[in-house]
Write the structure tokens for this entry.
Amino acid sequence: MIGLKPRQKNGNGNGNGIPQRVHLVGAGGVHMSAIGQILRHRGHEVTGSDLAASDYTERLVRLGAEVFIGPHDGAHVGDAQLVVTTAAAKPDNPELVAARARGVPVMLRAEMVQKLIADRDVLAIAGTHGKTTTTAMVTLMAVRADLDPMMLLGGDSRDLGNINVRDGAGRLAVLEADEYAGAFLEYTPRIALITNVEADHLDYYGTEERLRAAFKQFAERVKPEGTLIVCADSPAALAIGEERRAAGARVERYSIESHSDKQTVEWQATGIRGNDRGGLDAVIHLDGVELGRLSLSVAGRHNLSNALGALAVSMRAGVDFHRAAAAATEFSGTRRRFEQVGEVARDGGPITIVDDYAHHPTEVRATLLAARQRFPGRRLVACFQPHTYSRSTYLLDAFRTCFEGLDALYVLRTYEARESADKGMDAQALAAEIERPEAQYMDSFEEAADRIATDLRPGDVCFTLGAGDITELGPMILARLEAQR
């Protein structure tokens, strides 16, 4: 597993036609870092580059990789025999230009992942929301069943030691199958799960129809003897499943909602109720037969749905129900998913800071519903950082109303990611469009931390929401609250 020292170099590459010396463009990305960690574990020489240092670049360095921080430079390619790049890198990236000029092969991230998992039975988790949590749950279930799986995760699993990659020796590879730039179309899974399909990444796909067509193609890539599992509570995911079923594929459906015809869903959660750990309990049925009870420590109906999907994948991969259910009970979540950053005592009740990756309106709604379940009766405050200008534009109608239920809302400047400001609506314009509650725009982290720390009251719960660097805000607010004491 990752965490062990790298295997001995063999000088000629290490399986599946991967050469010995590999360079990673965008090595600090969560998926690219995972590739680098596996390559180092398997004995390859790895170099990489990224604009900024991060925990993910540091992990590579600790494993013996050389990572260049700062502007990209063709010299960084060095004597690499293969260059792997993130889809976010532009064609005129100096390192890609240098590699092509020297005749060094250039491969996209997903193509390399496919090489790394080529000899495994692949369990691929796709969907607009819930991929990371569900993938982490499936992996934990397989680990607890002593199947020693490989894992590539779009976040860090707290239950597995705050890691995003695992190079287990078992036959299973559990993979978060990302739809951006069609990455998931490189994989040929034995079992595939689609949690849901909603409008997202339209900066790449252009239209929701093209996005759905990509998910349909992903479903068609399941091996003929394999199984496609879809969430029946997502109309678009269910429609893809029904189309594949009509074509003769093996398809199973799961649901946490009530259905008038029980035969329409193979995997069903019933009797849903809260428990004393802040999560939900439910009774699980397969083909109408009760399997037992599922009891979660993580909050929210969306996480119950994730757990049911993970259970279906795991059991079809050979994990028995009781081991899978026990792992689900143990599951504490992934980093930046409802993660408590800290708490400051106050007369009248503590002030709690929670960080969450939610950056799509559906995810924001789900997080805030879970917050009401986990923190009943407490005042809820959030600071939201929009992720890309285009997403704020094409999801504007949903953003106008998804923050309902908050007692106060702050909106931080947009995290640009791969975009320029002319691609859509900026955060200040988005803040003005939000209907309830009235949003206050913050142009900088310092301004946001000062204002929020001043405004918070005893008993408040404050969420930092977004997929960008807003994760840095929570500790800043905590420091200011501590200084007030």
In short: The two ends are 44 Å apart (CA to CA). Residues 151 and 166 are 5 Å apart (CA to CA). Residues 8-13 have pLDDT under 50 and may be disordered.
